[in-house]
């Protein structure tokens, strides 16, 4: 069977109010700010000449609104609507949804001598940070690393199995900050600084085939 290889353009959604307030918004949501809308429009212009055979996003409004703006700016006869999937959501933060980001990672990491997200990731990994947060969650409903990737592997399989994608296709994915970091940690071969969060509206590129996923650029 011929192996299909395609280019995946992963865009972090535009700035939201929770971004301004430094609050976790995994499965919860807040609207795009005026700056977030303008940023999505700028990203749309950057990608306007790229033909996308398929587009995907999570079922959060911040991702769907960003997808509509980016695809609305496209001038290369691209697909008009994204496929929307809950499997492509951000990490679920459980009890800490909507909580201050720095406070939350202190609660998760301090018992391990690691008071910040950067400290946890530098010593261990983003996956371990997920595990620490699930441990700290009094309801233990935050996603562990294993639970997160069980869900996201389904989302990646949905993308790979799309009948719209051909060999050499360009595919758009509107995603989230921690989700982008998680992809880069898993598929970036250690080449990128995963302690640096991707900017709202930034583009990270991957090549995807039946048997391999590889990051080719991060946070551009």
From TrEMBL:
InterPro entries: His_Pase_superF_clade-1, His_PPase_superfam, Phosphoglycerate_Mutase. Gene3D superfamilies: Phosphoglycerate mutase-like. It comes from the Bacteria. Keywords: Hydrolase. Pfam families: His_Phos_1. SMART domains: PGAM. This is Histidine phosphatase family protein. It comes from Apilactobacillus apinorum.
């Amino acid at each position: 069977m011929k192996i299909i290889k395609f280019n995946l353009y992963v865009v972090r959604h535009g700035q939201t109010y929770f971004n301004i307030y430094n609050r976790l918004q995994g499965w919860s949501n807040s609207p795009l700010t005026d700056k977030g809308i303008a940023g999505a429009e700028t990203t749309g212009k950057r990608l306007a000449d790229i033909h996308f055979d398929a587009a995907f996003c999570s079922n959060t409004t911040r991702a769907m609104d960003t997808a509509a703006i980016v695809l609305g700016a496209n001038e290369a006869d691209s697909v008009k609507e994204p496929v929307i999937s809950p499997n492509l959501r951000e990490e679920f933060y459980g009890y800490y949804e909507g909580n201050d980001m720095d406070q939350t990672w202190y609660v998760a990491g301090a018992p391990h001598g690691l008071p910040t997200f950067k400290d946890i990731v530098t010593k261990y990994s983003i996956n371990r940070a997920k595990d620490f947060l699930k441990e700290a969650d009094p309801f233990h409903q935050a996603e562990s690393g294993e639970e997160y990737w069980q869900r996201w592997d389904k989302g990646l399989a949905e993308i790979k199995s799309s009948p719209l994608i051909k060999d050499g296709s360009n595919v758009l994915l509107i995603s989230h900050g921690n989700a982008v970091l998680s992809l880069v940690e898993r598929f970036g071969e250690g080449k990128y600084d995963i302690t640096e969060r991707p900017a709202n509206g930034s583009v990270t590129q991957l090549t995807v085939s039946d048997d391999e996923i590889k990051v080719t650029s991060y946070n551009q």
